[in-house]
Amino acid sequence: MNRRLPTSRLTLVLAAALAAACASAPRAPGAAASGGPKPAWVDGESSRWPRAGYVLGVGSADDQASAEDRARGEVARVFTADVSVQTTVDESESNSDKGHSFTQTVAENVRTTTRKVLEGVDIVARWKDATGRYYALAALLKSQGLLAVTEKTQAVDDEAGQWKKALDASTDKFERAKDAAKLVALVKSRADLDAERRVLGGGPAPDGSVDAGAARAEAAKALAALDVVVSVSGDGAEAVATGIISGLNAAGLSAKRGGPSDPADLRAEAAVTAAPADSGDPRWKRERASASVTLEDGRQGKAFARFDASAREDSIDPAEARRRALASLSREVSEKVSAAITSFFADQN
Length: 349
Prior knowledge:
Helices cover 45% and strands 20% of the residues. The chain has 2 domains: 1-223, no CATH class; 226-346, Double Stranded RNA Binding Domain (2-Layer Sandwich), CATH 3.30.160.150. The two termini are 17 Å apart. By secondary structure, it is an alpha/beta fold. Helix 1 packs antiparallel against helix 2, helix 5 packs antiparallel against helix 6 and helix 7 packs parallel to helix 8 (318-346). Strand 7 (285-297) and strand 8 form a beta hairpin. The protein contains 8 helices and 8 strands. Strands 5-4-6-7-8 form a 5-stranded mixed β-sheet, with helices on one face. A 3-stranded antiparallel β-sheet has the order 1-3-2.
């Protein structure tokens, strides 16, 4: 799941997938753009393709092909604005050998559904104004797209019901955390599909097999039951510890400070350095701060994620440059910890 992507809240925005879908969609045959009076659809309205039944997009450019591509992109952007599926963490930031995580699979399923919907986008009208500017109108029949969304929604509901049963039956705290992470990922994807349904004019979404609010509450309870210890050393340790704890909290975990040998279900360790650096300008003082972070499964004593983070900031005051660098480092560490923790639970077998 790019870099921000907590599964339960968890960040790859659909823009790339939508653009790819539009680019691969077959171009509808039709005559080249012609002149004449400006058609009403150029301003976004059309009696022939009413918005009640279609998602419309208007594009303009100096050539016809670009105008058509931009029109398709306007249709795609409607979905991008309403659906934001994020993944959990860059593959390079984890030493996991399990391949794509569960949440990546869920997110990809939703993106695939959106691509399938956008394959129905056609260029239905073209126009060229007196200056030689080309215009194109793209249209997506809402009822056609709604079929794909409805089909995927049912599949997500069925799978969510299965993980809800597993969560209810489990007594082991790690199993419960794993089941909860998978369930919340599905609840999030259901919400994304509901957003697409609204774009397509499908009316209120049918009730899902799982109550979203109850699922999130159960997940929070399951995660809070784990004993999590944070151990940080080095110059700037306090700021980085704050960032790690913030990231753990964002993933639903409660954490406490401790030593590397303290018993824990999960352990976060970090080594921090902060030192002056050359800014290239004698008027400005630069500070560079870095941290090496390890997240460990306390049950097995094995690291499941390692990453480095760094930040540099300038100021006329050396102390302020240091404060800024450590603050920036803390924010980056927080985001990466949250993403890695979410991915860890989603990847549990």
